[in-house]
Amino acid sequence: MPPAIDVRQARKRYGKLQALDGVDLRIEQGEFFGLLGPNGAGKTTLINLLAGLALPDDGQLSVLGHDVVKQYRASRRLLGVVPQELAFDPFFTVRETLRLQSGFFGLRRNDAWIDEVMHHLDLTSKADTNMRRLSGGMKRRVLVAQALVHKPPVIVLDEPTAGVDVELRQSLWRFIQQLNRDGHTILLTTHYLEEAEALCTRIAMLKHGRIVALDSTQNLLSSLAGCRVRLKLSGHLPVTLLSQVVEQTNDDYLLTLPSYQALESMLAELRVAGVAVQEMTLQQPDLEEVFLRLVGRAVH
Amino acid sequence: MLSFCSLLYKEVFRVWKVGFQTVLAPVLTALLYLLIFSHVLAQHVEVYPGVHYTAFLIPGLMMMAILQNAFANSSSSLIQSKITGNIVFVLLAPIAYWEFLAAYVLASMLRGLVVGIGIYFAALWFAQPPMLFPLWIILFAVLGSAMLGSLGVVAGMWAEKFDQLAGFQNFIIMPLTFLSGVFYSIHSLPPFWQALSRFNPFFYMIDGFRYGFFGVSDISPWVSLTVVGGCMLGLMLLSLGLLKSGYKLRY
């Protein structure tokens, strides 16, 4: 069984910028895979190479065993891409747009599936509305529908929920999760780390065109052993604990602890120093922490 | 094949939806040329013996409109799609390069030919040029519109802004059409300009097209056919090569 997506040593340069610098990535069929990274990390470049919107300088990329350059027609038939940029053709209605897109993929009489997709994306009432008259959120739904008209086994979503309301985000994820349960492979890039954490079974993190982490979401989270504890104290933190401080505002401290067992000794040291704990909150590690640690800069 | 049909349908539908601007407007412009030039020059000029200047003008204006509209169609469609970003839907689809080219060129030909036919019928009110060799007329109309449709694909790929495309149209297409013998026979020009006109492929399109109407031309229609056919083939191959390389479409 060929992998849904296979990327080997993909390189792409734009002028002086090395957008992708030898990326290797293998995504198995049926996975819900997340691709994370700060702006300019190379996520969209990688997606563009897979979709044929850009041509690689070096390396091989394939979709379900079909090379994206040499067998571009076969690979594009298997791929549905929701592009990041909000684009539409102002000459057509929603239904005309979806019928045309079906035609581009060689499908005739696709109305039953078009109706189903529109229903799931809450577009039915707008079927005969010109694209120009739709709101930004509605246009984004049509983009998603366009990517799905040919029932692609591999679906790529490049920041599909950027700037859209909570309602669409939730209905979109329900639909995408349903498609994933039905066997479709999903590749998602998002800036919303909680989305990736909730949806993706495996995650790759990109930085400066290279993959800096590639593992299951669970393993990435557990790689951050221990926990964080936020304390409000009656006095100053003992000197012995200062090395564990991440943030400090007056008598508010955020400390990292190597394990939950370390909590006991921390409290003991506070007792010995005569400092009382006024408030205490324990924080679980999340994907954002992994992301920040690996990528080394804030996102959003 | 269905991908090609869908892309062709999209392109034709686009023209149809703005038919007022894409078909009626150029017909009106050609009629204005005809009205003014025939009024001013008809009494003074006889290009071919026995051929009234107004009748002489009609095939030239038809061909000029066919060429300009064929070029405008593919080039403006591509640049609009590139600038608004909706070209992505075509680029993501499994459309072969030849299907892409054929759809854009055929839609351009269709627009050019519809405008040309529109001018012919509207111009009948002014004069009725004979149609001695209809096959030559059809052949040059088809080859000329295909050549300019193809050139429009190249220009549409090359241009990144509307003003670049306008520059291409104003500084290349317009001079080549106006200096190709639409309004005159090149035999009326001084030797230097006559010789220079022979480097203008548009001259051969108009001269060959006019031969189909009057049975007389500045140059043998076979020579014109060879030049126009060669240029069309060359431009088709160039467009296909550029599409294959992803020139300014697939970065």
Description:
By secondary structure, chain A is α/β, with parallel strands linked by helices. Chain A folds into 2 domains: 5-221, P-loop containing nucleotide triphosphate hydrolases (Rossmann fold), CATH 3.40.50.300; 225-284, Alpha-Beta Plaits. Chain A contains 10 helices and 14 strands. Chain A has helices spanning 43-51, 72-77, 94-104, 111-120, 136-148, 166-181, 193-199, 217-222, 262-273, 287-295; strands spanning 5-14, 17-27, 32-36, 58-63, 66-67, 79-82, 154-158, 185-189, 202-207, 210-216, 227-233, 245-249, 252-257, 277-283. In chain A, the strands form 3 sheets. A 6-stranded mixed beta sheet of chain A has the order 6-7-8-3-9-10, with helices on both faces. Chain A starts with a strand and ends in a 5-residue tail after the last helix. With 251 residues, chain B is an all-alpha fold. Chain B has one domain. Chain B contains 10 helices and no strands. Chain B has helices at 2-17, 19-41, 53-84, 87-91, 97-123, 134-158, 162-178, 191-197, 201-214, 221-245. In chain B, α3 packs parallel to α6. Chain B starts with a helix and ends in a 6-residue tail after the last helix. The A-B interface holds A 14, 48, 51-55, 72-74, 76-77, 79, 81, 83, 85-92, 100-108, 146 and B 2-3, 5-7, 9-10, 13-14, 17-18, 81, 84-86, 88-96, 246, 250-251.
By CATH, the superfamily of the largest domain in chain A comes out as P-loop containing nucleotide triphosphate hydrolases
Strand tally of chain A, please? 14
Radius of gyration of chain B: 18 Å
CATH class of the largest domain in chain A: Alpha Beta
Number of domains of chain A: 2
The helix-strand sequence of chain B is HHHHHHHHHH
Unreliable segments of chain A (pLDDT under 50, ≥5 consecutive)?
none
CATH fold-level name of the largest domain in chain A: Rossmann fold
Mean pLDDT across every amino acid position of chain B: 91
Number of helices of chain A: 10
Count of DSSP strands of chain B: 0
Distance between the termini of chain B: 26 Å
Largest sheet of chain B: none
Oligomeric status: heterodimer
Radius of gyration of chain A: 23 Å
The ordered string of helix (H) and strand (E) elements of chain A is EEEHEEHEHHHEHEHEEHEEEHEH
Helix/strand class of chain B: mainly alpha
Mean pLDDT of chain A: 88
Which protein chains are joined by the largest interface, and how many residues does each one contribute? A-B, 33 and 27 residues
What composes the largest sheet of chain A?
6 strands, mixed
